[in-house]
Design brief:
Elements: E1 2-4, E2 11-13, E3 20-23, E4 29-31, H1 34-47, H2 50-62, H3 69-109, H4 112-143, H5 147-156, H6 163-176, H7 180-190, H8 196-213
Antiparallel strand pairs: 1-2, 2-3, 3-4
Helix pairs in contact: 1-2, 2-3, 3-4, 4-5, 5-6, 5-7, 6-7, 7-8
């Protein structure tokens, strides 16, 4: 990784996880700040390759909670998902073409049982692809700031991949936005996940405070 030297403006080389780096131009030793990690992650994200997006995600994850690093992590994850979706779609299209050719041959040969088995495999593959698309759509809701739709979409996916963690992150965003009534059912659903109990109680307290602040009629 490379960042700008604060002494001479040269290039400071460092590796992920290291806290210091040395300038190639003036030899000065420089502490790697979160801003350096953030900047490097942005450059990697801009390269828009599978490898660079994975590296950017790792860097954003190392400074989670700093500025909009969490949102950028989700954005990189979404872009990576789309990229892999395109590759997977092309692969599945090739498999579908080969499968159709084999089906025609098997029909002629009368291998009905074998066709039935392969059709089952095709259905399973199609279901997996649908789940993959649903996951990416939910991630797009989060990236767009539609945290309630994001939480709901990931909750519907149950334990698929890291959906439970995505529900938690979305609910936290709702809480930070003061949308306690929207966030509460998702913290309740998480039931013991991380510190959801803390947020669940805080939502209830905030809603109780609001109700108490409303003057009684009459």
């Amino acid at each position: 990784m490379i960042c700008k030297c604060r002494s001479c403006g040269g290039s400071v080389e460092w590796k992920q996880g290291e806290t210091t780096g040395v300038c190639r131009d003036c030899g000065a030793k420089q502490t790697i700040e979160k801003s350096d990690v953030y900047e490097q992650a942005g450059l990697l994200a801009g390269e828009d390759t599978e490898e660079s997006l994975e590296q950017a995600m790792a860097l954003y994850r190392s400074i989670r909670g700093w500025q909009d690093a969490d949102r950028r992590y989700i954005d990189c994850r979404t872009r990576l998902g789309r990229m892999r979706w395109q590759v997977e779609s092309a692969r599945l299209k090739e498999e579908e073409d080969r499968f159709e050719a084999k089906v025609a041959h098997w029909k002629k040969a009368g291998l009905t049982a074998l066709i039935a088995v392969l059709l089952c495999i095709a259905v399973i593959t199609a279901v997996s692809l649908v789940r993959f698309a649903q996951y990416n759509k939910a991630a797009e809701f989060y990236t767009a700031g539609e945290y309630r739709r994001s939480a709901e979409a990931f909750r519907e996916m149950g334990d698929y991949k890291d959906s439970r963690a995505r529900v938690y992150i979305s609910a936290v965003e709702l809480y930070r936005a003061g949308r306690y009534e929207d966030a509460l059912p998702y913290f309740d659903w998480l039931d013991g996940y991380l510190d959801n109990g803390y947020y669940l109680q805080k939502c209830r307290d905030r809603l109780a405070d609001r109700e108490a602040a409303v003057p009684e009629a009459g």
